[in-house]
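dude i think i finally got it to work??
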Amino acid sequence: MPGSASPESVSHVPDWQVAKADEQKPESLLVHSRRAVFVFPWFRFVYAEGDNTRAELVFSTHAILVTGQGLAALLAAVAGQRVIRVIEPSENEASFAVRGPGARKHDGPAVHSIKVTKFGEDE
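look at this
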């Protein structure tokens, strides 16, 4: 993707963790939403699409919609199946664009929300 960061350069993003180039690819993706934790094996990954403000990851049984900013970097890491986990921040962290201890201001790539939908479920 034009203008997107390489997967290795996004490992410092607090809302997702990426395996480094010299590390083994993860076997699964861990998704931490505010309400639940999901584990999706990468061998069930179908495709992803999106832009800087949204990323949709589709696995054989579920779709994951991530909204935020700078998500082209997340999509680049997904393309290489290097993402280890994606974390939905608390409502306050998302609303006030802060992260971590001391609620430091964060204006880089970030997740605002995550919605996981199981295929066949009513929305």
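The longest strand covers residues 110-118.
im so relieved honestly
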